[in-house]
Amino acid sequence: MKQTEILDELKGYISREVLDGKDVGLDESTPLLEWGIIDSMGMANMVSFIQNRFHVEIPDDMILPEHFINLSALSNLVVSLTMGGNDISGS
Amino acid sequence: MSLKDLLVLSAKRTPDALAVKGPDESLTYGEIDRLANRIARALDDSGVRKGDRVGIWLDKSVRAVAAMQGVLRLGAAYVPLDPLSPAYRVRSIIQDCDMRAFVSTAKGAETTLTDSNANVASLCTDNTGQGLSWDDLQSFSDEPFEGPKSGENDLAFILYTSGSTGKPKGVCISNLNALAFIEWAGDEIKVNSDDRFSNHAPFHFDLSVLDLYVAFRAGASVILIPDMLSYAPRRLVNLIQQEEVTIWYSVPSALILMMEQGGLLEEQTIPLRAILFAGEPFPIKHLRRLYERWSAVRFLNLYGPTETNVCTFYEVRGIKKDRTKPVPIGRGCSGDRVWAVKDDGTETKPGEEGELMVSGPTVMLGYWGHPAHGDKPYPTGDMVRLEKDGNYDYVGRRDHMVKVRGHRVELGEIEAALGGHTDIHEVAVVVSSSDMNTRLIAFIVCNDNTRPTFLDIKRHCAERLPRYMIVDDVSFLNELPRTRNGKVDRLKLKQDAENIYKKKDDIK
């Protein structure tokens, strides 16, 4: 899966599950934690979504705010966890 | 006896025992005692005097704890500030309590200390930027610091909480206020020097006062939990195991997250001997599971607004199968008198509801910049019901203050912040709660036809309010509903919000 597709999936999740469709202006640099878009519970739900959707295991020590600050950081995390990033283009 | 003595005395008794362990460093009682002496001398050298206020704007760290102790040794008061708060809010607090000094990182000082507060001395925990650096502390002696005597009614620290008028308000806690409940808690929980306390709450949150000082009083160890771990429930559970934490204290929502996502119920054994919780009602279905899984652990529900410290408690000794409401907040402790009064001013009898009143040694000195509270009873704003067995059950609030994961939120403060948005004509914020979720919803009437986006509103909040006060949803209206006497009909808005979420939750 390409990074742009991963990004779209993650954006779709935030838009649908968190912002309830009110996503005008949401882009890969929107601060997710700083603007209170996701909190500790939201982060736990996001982890579940990523693990199920992308079939990756996020190790406990990778669950850090720095990987969740925005969609760009989050998609980088997913890329780094999937297949060592070998089949990813556009990253 | 004053608050600073708790650590000093333990340092004399057991200098080599672990006092505080943080994410980056650990200090024994002897080491933190000597570091606090250096900090006191450095701040003294910067002109901090007895009664002055010193802000501490730092992430969870051993250095932050040492800074608090250094401030107390000068007879000054520390003001712990939310590390996740925007600089705008921190600046307003610096001005409100006329701070004399500020302990932060160089970056924190740079973004906060502006021309308007150029007279505030700064001590930075890193070694860049202006002001005094951590390395500079080496030039000050670590010998015992004989500061001015602190009286029991002298100010020890100020905790800022949400204010209904739009500005945070500073709750002033004296040595006596803090000591009274710390001594009670230490005795009730029978804390000893072998105990290992977790410190989950941030330092600006009143729950952290108990962790630090009850541990210092007993010569026990405190394991600081960095803020980022609150996002990783599995790591929190691992921390309990690896650090052999014996006493845990947090808001119930943190425990629920650890149960739901961290595997707290699936562990084979746990080192905990006591779980303390406070700040919000613990939904009974979750508490029941936790209690039944770890029945050998003591469970204590502690209650008390920041203004009174912990003033009632309830020890869970079995939960009836048919109980649907949270466990009681219990009965008075800490040498306080607690009672409830009805609207007609008379005291409640068993079965009746009233507002909980508190008087006694733990009740604050007052709000900073306002007249002293004096010996008057403190009306908590919490409605309670007196049960036949003498315990109080929490019923709800009588005003617009709500709790979000244990944090106090005055809806008026959010409304004031949003009201400053150029596109917003009028706004009312309500809360909608379920077992797992507390949502803040803003109902907004815009000027003309310019409607800000939801993300624009989130950003506007984030620049002015702590994270837990950023609204979770917005709904735009042509006008706010009114009651017959012209007030905003909050009840209707709350019902509307709850109906919306009920539908959504049902769909999910």
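qc> Chain B has a mean pLDDT of 93.
qc> done
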